């Protein structure tokens, strides 16, 4: 199978990278961080980018597509970056990847804007706009779990890598959901390590 980091980088690069698309996504990011996701209308994004609404529609079919592409670029990039982390065992590596990803996603200005302006819609954002990011995370974790089991460093228990990766993504989501009421990096790391043991 292809290396996880190669697969993830390919998934992130699926976001349109031409100059106009990049400008539009940058504009959407500024609008969201300044006024929340609800402020990110096609008109507002076009105005911030200094282009016409028609230019926006030539690149993206609707507002939803813009926001999904933006979150894929920003938060998917975080997940892809964690594939470069190192640890002394496969289990500790996966625990580090999950913990660092959750920490960085919670600290990202876009997620902060969702939490600040539209926390009641976080479920929709997690399941809708972040869908690609979740798939990326699951791909990375599944490949790492399978490799840990196959190479036998002894740190990961037997089990279905697909189901185990889904469980870890759901745990990570919970720590993103619960960010405002608490959630501790050390406890998340311990939770993931215990689950995989």
Structure in a nutshell:
The chain has helices spanning 4-12, 19-35, 42-49, 53-59, 63-82, 90-107, 109-117, 122-129, 131-151, 161-177, 185-196. With 197 residues, it is mainly alpha-helical.
Question: What attributes does this structure have?
Answer:
elongated; 197 residues; single chain; 74% helix; mainly alpha
Ordered list of secondary-structure elements with their pairings:
Layout: H1 4-12, H2 19-35, H3 42-49, H4 53-59, H5 63-82, H6 90-107, H7 109-117, H8 122-129, H9 131-151, H10 161-177, H11 185-196
Helix pairs in contact: 1-5, 1-9, 2-3, 2-5, 2-7, 3-4, 5-6, 5-9, 6-10, 6-11, 9-10
Question: Could you walk me through the main structural features you see in this protein, from its secondary elements to its overall organization?
Answer:
There is one protein chain. With about 200 residues, the protein is an all-alpha fold. Helices cover about 75% and strands about 0% of the residues. It has 11 helices and no strands. Helix 5 (about 65-80) runs antiparallel to helix 6 and helix 6 (about 90-105) runs antiparallel to helix 11 (about 185-195). The model has no long low-confidence stretch (mean pLDDT about 85).
Largest sheet: none
Share of residues in strands: under 5%
The counted number of beta strands is 0
* Tally of individual helices: 11
Instruction: Look at the helices and sheets and give the structural class.
Output: mainly alpha
